[in-house]
């Protein structure tokens, strides 16, 4: 998971909801209301949303650390086992927009509770399925059900929490996303040391169940939700308008290629760590702690953008990813770890920059722009992750890294095109000002 995309959601929904609340207050001439920090209701709300993030991202990535073991135990190819990730993220991508639209009619709480409850229940079935086909199918269903949480959790907070305390509540939710993603990898990886992979998966699913129950029991009733009239035509027109903007279209492409390359590397790196370097499953699971480098780098991305500019910063980060891939091709454990650290940090910084850039460009219908960005983000994870698995299964590690290198070269071309468009826009702004 991925905390930087939800940091972007934070900014998007904050702007949108704050404007909406200001307009309502102006018309009604009433003070701002909402759940305030320091009250018991606020504590319940924050803990509930934190638990939602922990449960969602625990469930989303619960099989990633198990891929080498699943491949061996079920006698399947790495690309087949990786479909337990690709199917989940792919269906999540397809269902994020519909889930968001449903919440406008039925309410955020109903979508949150229904989505997470059903997804957790599906997770409890996963350890008992008879074959890989059924496991992949259920993981796809789980991804579709999970989509309701990232689609509306931020909106729930923006509508119900007092604006002065909203930043704190959002920060807690983002932390839950990050830690939940790590737990989804670390719990099953640790359990593999003492038990079978099905039991390891069950342990992860039970953890998601506990967090899901906490969310359902603690989530306060909504007070500020008002159903809206949503038309499919209007939503489709808003999305189509964003795709017609060349800068936004290129940023959506950044999300697709960057996330696809990133997930591909993490999906199959475990196989190399075990077979080439002889690491145990629990040590391979510890590799996912590298995500913490992304937590740090995404917070530093703003400083880099301020210093270099959006375009040059994106180019620099892409080049860093490319250089890190070269290091990953070297047959040395420490070089691999250092290169993975650099690749992960650069990816999250790029992702943070790109998602924030979307919010700057899309001055109207920002929620739809965010939805399109996340759609491409998770679709890249699904499709590129699957294709990369085929290459990994039949080619050497060096060829696999070369394939990822080609993807990053394509990403470099996209960021260069973005930088040129940004430079042209700034030049026109200067001329217009003169």
From TrEMBL:
<feature type="transmembrane region" description="Helical">
    <location>
        <begin position="374"/>
        <end position="394"/>
    </location>
</feature>
<feature type="transmembrane region" description="Helical">
    <location>
        <begin position="248"/>
        <end position="268"/>
    </location>
</feature>
<dbReference type="Pfam" id="PF07690">
    <property type="entry name" value="MFS_1"/>
</dbReference>
<dbReference type="InterPro" id="IPR036259">
    <property type="entry name" value="MFS_trans_sf"/>
</dbReference>
<feature type="transmembrane region" description="Helical">
    <location>
        <begin position="45"/>
        <end position="67"/>
    </location>
</feature>
<comment type="similarity">
    <text>Belongs to the major facilitator superfamily.</text>
</comment>
<feature type="transmembrane region" description="Helical">
    <location>
        <begin position="111"/>
        <end position="130"/>
    </location>
</feature>
<keyword id="KW-0813">Transport</keyword>
<dbReference type="InterPro" id="IPR020846">
    <property type="entry name" value="MFS_dom"/>
</dbReference>
<feature type="transmembrane region" description="Helical">
    <location>
        <begin position="340"/>
        <end position="362"/>
    </location>
</feature>
<feature type="transmembrane region" description="Helical">
    <location>
        <begin position="274"/>
        <end position="292"/>
    </location>
</feature>
<dbReference type="InterPro" id="IPR011701">
    <property type="entry name" value="MFS"/>
</dbReference>
<protein>
    <submittedName>
        <fullName>Major facilitator superfamily permease</fullName>
    </submittedName>
</protein>
<keyword id="KW-1133">Transmembrane helix</keyword>
<feature type="transmembrane region" description="Helical">
    <location>
        <begin position="170"/>
        <end position="188"/>
    </location>
</feature>
<feature type="transmembrane region" description="Helical">
    <location>
        <begin position="200"/>
        <end position="219"/>
    </location>
</feature>
<dbReference type="GO" id="GO:0022857">
    <property type="term" value="F:transmembrane transporter activity"/>
</dbReference>
<feature type="transmembrane region" description="Helical">
    <location>
        <begin position="400"/>
        <end position="419"/>
    </location>
</feature>
<keyword id="KW-0812">Transmembrane</keyword>
<feature type="domain" description="Major facilitator superfamily (MFS) profile">
    <location>
        <begin position="44"/>
        <end position="422"/>
    </location>
</feature>
<feature type="transmembrane region" description="Helical">
    <location>
        <begin position="313"/>
        <end position="334"/>
    </location>
</feature>
<keyword id="KW-1003">Cell membrane</keyword>
<feature type="transmembrane region" description="Helical">
    <location>
        <begin position="79"/>
        <end position="99"/>
    </location>
</feature>
<dbReference type="GO" id="GO:0005886">
    <property type="term" value="C:plasma membrane"/>
</dbReference>
<keyword id="KW-0472">Membrane</keyword>
């Amino acid at each position: 998971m991925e905390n930087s995309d939800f940091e972007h959601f934070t900014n998007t929904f904050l702007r949108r909801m704050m404007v909406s609340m200001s307009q309502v207050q102006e018309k009604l001439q009433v003070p701002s209301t909402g759940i305030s920090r320091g009250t018991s209701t606020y504590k319940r709300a924050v803990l509930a949303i934190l638990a939602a993030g922990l449960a969602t991202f625990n469930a989303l990535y619960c099989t990633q650390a198990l891929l080498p073991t699943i491949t061996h135990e079920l006698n399947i190819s790495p690309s087949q086992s990786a479909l337990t990730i690709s199917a989940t993220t792919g269906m999540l991508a397809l269902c994020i927009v519909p889930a968001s639209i449903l919440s406008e009619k039925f309410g955020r709480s109903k979508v949150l509770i229904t989505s997470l409850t059903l997804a957790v229940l599906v997770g409890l079935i996963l350890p008992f399925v008879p074959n890989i086909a059924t496991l992949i199918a259920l993981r796809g269903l789980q991804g579709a059900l999970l989509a309701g949480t990232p689609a509306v959790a931020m909106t729930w907070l923006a509508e119900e929490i007092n604006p002065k305390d909203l930043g704190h509540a959002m920060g807690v939710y983002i932390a839950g996303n990050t830690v939940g993603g790590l737990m989804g990898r670390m719990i099953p990886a640790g359990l593999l040391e003492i038990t079978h992979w099905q039991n390891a998966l069950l342990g992860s699913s039970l953890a998601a169940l506990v967090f899901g129950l906490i969310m359902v029991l603690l989530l306060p009733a909504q007070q500020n939700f008002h159903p809206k009239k949503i038309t499919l035509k209007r939503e489709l027109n808003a999305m189509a308008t964003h795709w017609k903007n060349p800068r936004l279209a290129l940023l959506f492409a950044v999300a697709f290629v960057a996330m696809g390359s990133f997930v591909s590397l993490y999906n199959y790196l475990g196989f190399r760590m075990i077979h080439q370097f002889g690491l145990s499953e629990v040590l391979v699971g510890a590799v996912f702690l590298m995500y913490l480098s992304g937590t740090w780098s995404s917070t530093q991305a703003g400083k880099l953008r301020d210093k270099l500019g959006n375009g040059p910063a994106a180019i620099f980060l892409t080049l860093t990813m490319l250089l890190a891939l070269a290091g990953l091709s070297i047959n040395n454990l420490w070089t691999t770890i250092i290169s993975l650290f650099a690749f992960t940090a650069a990816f999250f910084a790029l992702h943070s920059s790109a998602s924030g850039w979307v919010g700057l460009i899309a001055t109207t219908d920002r929620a739809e722009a965010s939805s399109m960005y996340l759609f491409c983000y998770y679709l890249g994870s699904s499709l590129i992750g699957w294709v990369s698995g085929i290459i990994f299964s039949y080619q050497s590690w060096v060829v696999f890294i070369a394939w990822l290198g080609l993807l990053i070269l394509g990403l470099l071309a996209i960021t260069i095109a973005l930088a040129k468009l940004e430079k042209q826009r700034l030049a026109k702004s200067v001329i217009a000002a003169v």
